[in-house]
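In the current project phase, work has continued on tokenised descriptions of protein folds. One protein thus recorded appears below exactly as we store it.

——
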Amino acid sequence: MAATFQTLINGDKPVLVDFTASWCGPCKMMKPILEEVKSTIGEKVTIIKVDIDESPGAASFYQVQSVPTLILFKKGQIVWRQSGVIPAAQLTGILETNA
């Protein structure tokens, strides 16, 4: 895993990591949801995508078994995790609670 990834998730700002894959249908459904969430919450939370095929080490380290898997980090700790598509309103609520 890149040092920048570790630096990012260990920072003060919460980071939502979307573990995804280019071949994954549900992952494609998450793209507009994440864009909507980002426009709602602004800069309170950083949202990044990690392609499991391009970064198998990160996927393995965080035991990502299926995609999409969303993991919310706060100061390096996992504070929330879910696999599968999640509605924008529900995800926004989770992020607002942890921001």
Q: What stands out?
A: The first helix runs from residue 3 to 9. Residues 3-81 form a domain with the Glutaredoxin fold (CATH 3.40.30.10). The chain has one domain: 3-81.
